[in-house]
Amino acid sequence: LGGLLFFLAGADLKQIIFLLILAFVIAWIVVQFSATGQDRVGSFIAGLQDPTNASYHVQRSYEAVIKGGIFGVGLGQADTKLTGLPFAPTDSIFAVVAEELGLFGSFLLLSLYGVLIWRGFLIARRAPDMLGTLLASGMTMWIGIEALINMSVMVGLMPFAGNALPFISAGGSNLVSTLCAVGIMLNISRQ
Length: 191
Hints:
By secondary structure, the protein is mainly alpha-helical. The two termini are 25 Å apart. The chain contains 7 helices and no strands. α5 (93-126) packs parallel to α7. The protein has helices at 2-8, 13-33, 35-49, 56-68, 93-126, 130-154, 172-190.
């Protein structure tokens, strides 16, 4: 997110490439010296090679997504959330949505995030000054990236990150900070 904002602010491409390389090196070092990081990356790679070797969390989310089918089992009718899906109301809420509303509901949720991102970038483009542009762009990308990470983890496309799905996950702190971001974007839009 910082690199994207740095780019939008007009930074030199060499600086951005240097920062990206530095970020990847630091991330690699953290993974090498962190047992949790090694476990998450290892189970992710094993899950890519064979989905039956994925972590328990990802296997249970696969189960929920598969049970949901095209149109889901019905709102409030999911049973995976009650029979062992870890962190169902917070980290794994997308798997619950996929089970209850199916592929159709998942694409509907994805399209709602798409509309939010489109509107946020429209606000950023029409902002009266550079500060408004960077604020709206940053908050839009933050919400979009957080949603993308959560959904990608639940379908096995990224290592487990443990972040919330904006506006959907239970818990107050994420919802409050996301609503503050939307309020700031609405204020920029009003100007």
